[in-house]
Specification:
The chain is built from nine helices and 13 strands. By secondary structure, it is α/β, with parallel strands linked by helices. Helix 5 packs across helix 6 and helix 7 packs antiparallel against helix 8. It is globular.
């Protein structure tokens, strides 16, 4: 891959959600009114954009995280953990009296997961405090779909400067995508996220709905089946790398962060998607959303072993 033949340290701005995750490893995912015994328990920082930011840091990017959280124990803990991954948290703002997002996650023996998330409370939507003047110095921007006003501000500023943007598309508030997609370059949906905007449609039809909302390129991740993209008017399928799956937690977030690193380093679509699929596969081969994120050296070695 051409963009990996030189130093890969693009400047990336990441905006969106940070959370505290409480994770239980269980033999199988619970169903109905039941009680099960966990084989392991741990807590760590989570959240779509925050985990993408950690991936950017692990992959060698100069990453700045712009976000809102409560000035509570969860907010302080998530900020401190981000810093340990090399993330600049200067503009991760903790608001007094407000509550940080928290998630409860069950992970079964096959690596599949079940998540319950409380998105926090009292966090202001106004993005006027964001340092949008810093966008001109960035090589790419990435965000999740949780803070619509922030995405509009950041992606609008990036679009004006010709800087590529990547949006992590999950279930969002009603009307959110009609506002965010017109300023988005690469909108990448989970299957649940795509079904949210195109209920009951197959992936191709769903992507056509997403493209009609205004994003330049749209895609959906399909787990072990890879990802499907609608780019420049035609569909393209990219396969996933086959690994022994240990834990899929955070794989989608890591994929989005890796895309931002690749596009920021000048990769074309083929290079960016292949690189990001490799990063996500390596993450799935290890336990934990963030502890499993590979660094750039491990990703390069994996790609070379896979024939790239």
């Amino acid at each position: 891959m051409r963009f990996l033949k030189h130093e890969c340290s693009p400047r990336v701005i990441c905006l969106g959600m940070s959370a505290m995750d409480y994770v239980w490893n269980v033999p199988e995912l619970p169903v109905g009114n039941t009680k099960i015994r966990a084989t392991e328990f741990f807590e760590m920082g989570g959240g779509l954009a925050a985990t993408a930011a950690c991936a950017c840091g692990r992959l060698g990017a100069r990453i700045s995280f712009w976000s809102r959280a409560g000035e509570d124990q969860a907010g302080r803990s998530t900020r401190d953990e981000l810093q340990r991954y090399g993330v600049d948290t200067t503009h991760y703002r903790l608001f007094p009296g407000q509550r940080t997002s928290v998630s409860g996650i069950f992970v079964d023996a096959a690596g599949e997961r079940m998540i319950a998330n409380f998105r926090g409370a009292g966090l202001p939507a106004d993005p006027s405090w964001l340092p949008l003047g810093d966008v001109a110095a960035a090589d790419s921007v990435v965000a999740d779909c949780r803070w619509v006003e922030g995405v509009e501000a950041l992606f609008g500023a990036a679009r004006a400067k010709g800087i590529p943007s990547v949006l992590d598309c999950e279930i969002a508030e009603p009307g959110a995508y009609e506002r965010m997609l017109p300023v988005t370059d690469y909108a990448v949906f989970s299957q649940i996220g795509l079904n949210f905007i195109a209920p009951g449609k197959d992936p191709e039809a769903g992507l056509e709905v997403a493209a009609a909302m205004g994003a330049r390129t749209v895609a959906v991740t399909l787990g072990a089946k890879g990802s499907l993209w609608l780019h420049e008017g035609r569909f393209r399928h990219f396969p996933a790398f086959q690994v022994e799956v240990v834990d899929t937690t955070g794989a989608g977030d890591v994929f989005h962060g890796a895309l931002a690193v690749a596009f920021g380093a000048g990769a074309d679509l083929d290079e960016a998607v292949t690189f990001s699929a490799a990063v996500a596969a390596l993450k799935c081969a290890k336990a934990g959303g963030r502890p499993g994120i590979p660094d750039l050296a491990a990703t390069k070695a994996f790609l070379e072993k896979s024939g790239y």
